[in-house]
Amino acid sequence: MLLKFDDVCLAFGSRPLLDRVSLQVAEGERVCVVGRNGEGKSSLLRLVAGRSPPDDGTVWVKPGARLAMLAQDLDVVEGTRVGEVVRSGLPADAGESWEIGHQIESIQTRLGLDPDREFAELSGGWQRRALLGRALVSDPDILLLDEPTNHLDIEAIEWLEQMMLEFRGALLFVSHDRAFVNRLATRVVELDRGQLSSWPGNYDDFVVKKNLQLQIEVKANAHFDKKLAQEEVWIRRGVEARRTRNEGRVRELKAMREQRRQRRDRIGQAEFALSEANESGKRVFEAEGALVRFAEKTVIRDFSTRIQRGDRIGIVGPNGAGKSTLIKLLLGEVEPQEGKVWRGSRLEIAYYDQQREQLDLAASVFDNVNGGNAFVPIGGENRHVSGYLREFLFRPDQLLTPASALSGGERNRLLLARLFARPANVLVMDEPTNDLDIDTLELLEELVAEFTGTLLLVSHDRAFLDNVVTSLLVLEGDGSVREFVGGWTDWRKWRTAAREQELASQRAAHIPTPTAEASRSSAIPARRAKRLSFKEQREFDELPQRIESLESRKGELEIRVAQPHFYQGTAESIRDSLQQLQQLIEDIDAAYARWAELEALRDAT
């Protein structure tokens, strides 16, 4: 056991964030903490890191265990250059060696960090990348990550996933990225109304079981409230209650009142709708041979496309590849140096900017929505701004608060409220999912999926892309833009298959071609020439059975890990089982790769 909470309490003002909770985390576990914005997920991680004490109870970390944390907010750093910031994450006794230097260089390369850049000159997103590098380089026993995928592009997220799958310590992380949680989590812990509940499996498993639990809770609460109401009627009869002298029943009623008082009903879910404008023209955007260059750097070159009414397009690519520039090119905020861009008729555009530049941070929450007007037109009727903002989970006492005082998630919700208060037939969203809790994100996803106008979406959230877009514009990082029909998963499968085919072709190209004399003397046609040795052919024939056996063992182990009593075992047995599961996953991947390699050799001409 590496980490343990015993009856831990933590409150923010009068509101309890943690109410006598218990938690255990063993080596090899990858535990994701989920919950609404403001529930206390980041506060829980700070308790583990020792950055703040609990109000009551104990937080125990195994003596001698190394711990590293990536916080959601930017930390004070040691060092002025990026390389110094990353290196500051090493233990004091690390010293210098080739292995350590290689590890630092590898992490900096995969995160796209320039070690010679001044840390203070970086944007917030790039500073966060450097701090992620600082956390990873220490090779800790316990790694705490608070929204680690924010501001990372998909390639960096997938690299981080693979690195975390290979991580042998305990991982405790907060994330709204459902694909990230599904791939990594061995257990989901939900923080809800001050209580922690543990759910073996990934996020999809958690959703199914949690929905069932909520249905049971609603029925149980309804039954309790009905009984309480009946008892209140009885006690108000007064004379009968005193005459029967049923003191036990009176005591029970008082206990029920206290139980109802302490019960904190689940926080309401954000509810919002997009006010759609009249149809735009059929042609929304069209580009022909467009080129955008900043100084000596070509960001977009030879870009041609036609976007029509109702198209749902995702825009993906590495950070810095030009995704936001592409949107600004289509919207007319950036003009091409070469080529042309046309915009259609009757366009009513709602634009969500990832930098939140559309918010007036000095103005109040109320004034940000509709320029100080008390009413907003939503769905053909005028709604009062205060009631409208309640649907975005803003409390009445927050309406006069300056937007600058809001958290990142609250600013996102305010920007969504501002965005949806305007009729639109073109919805443009640049990284809308950052800082949103999963419940709000899924509601936003449902809303966007039902939008009947034209959608342009920049996002690194793979699940969000898969669920709302039908085609992609993929920026390669060299200025080129590729059009692809399908979602992110479709693109990833196509890209992987294309790369494997290219590698197979390269391997086949290095196989010596038989001489003409050898070909004439052979009774076997050249195409059927033996490409595999006896040993390789036997390995190729046996691989399908080996893969089937590995898959079967993996399935059995996954069933065992998903059982509720699994985490009640010893720390050693939990660690061994999780390590076995990870090893099976790696063995299966290796077996498939070897099978593809041998097949390419066998079929080479």
Overview of this structure, please?
Helix 3 runs antiparallel to helix 4 and helix 18 packs antiparallel against helix 19. The strands form 5 sheets. Strands 5-6-7-3-8-9 form a 6-stranded mixed beta sheet, sandwiched between helices. A 6-stranded mixed beta sheet has the order 14-17-18-12-19-20, sandwiched between helices. The chain has a 3-stranded antiparallel beta sheet with strand order 2-1-4, with helices on one face. The longest helix is centred in the middle third of the chain and has 34 residues. It folds into 4 domains: 205 residues, P-loop containing nucleotide triphosphate hydrolases (Rossmann fold, 3-Layer(aba) Sandwich), CATH 3.40.50.300; 55 residues, no CATH class; 207 residues, P-loop containing nucleotide triphosphate hydrolases (Rossmann fold, 3-Layer(aba) Sandwich); 93 residues, Helix Hairpins, CATH 1.10.287. 43% of the residues lie in helices and 21% in strands. The chain has 19 helices and 20 strands. The chain is an alpha/beta fold and 605 residues long.
Compile the SSE list and pairings:
Elements: E1 3-12, E2 15-25, E3 30-34, H1 41-49, E4 56-61, E5 67-70, H2 82-87, H3 98-110, H4 124-137, E6 142-146, H5 154-166, E7 170-174, H6 178-184, E8 187-192, E9 195-200, H7 203-236, H8 239-244, H9 247-262, E10 283-294, E11 297-308, E12 312-316, H10 323-331, E13 338-343, E14 349-352, H11 365-370, E15 375-378, E16 381-384, H12 385-390, H13 408-420, E17 426-430, H14 438-450, E18 454-458, H15 462-468, E19 471-475, E20 481-485, H16 488-509, H17 516-521, H18 534-562, H19 571-603
Parallel strand pairs: 3-7, 3-8, 5-6, 6-7, 12-18, 12-19, 14-17, 17-18
Antiparallel strand pairs: 1-2, 1-4, 8-9, 10-11, 10-13, 15-16, 19-20
Helix pairs in contact: 3-4, 7-9, 18-19
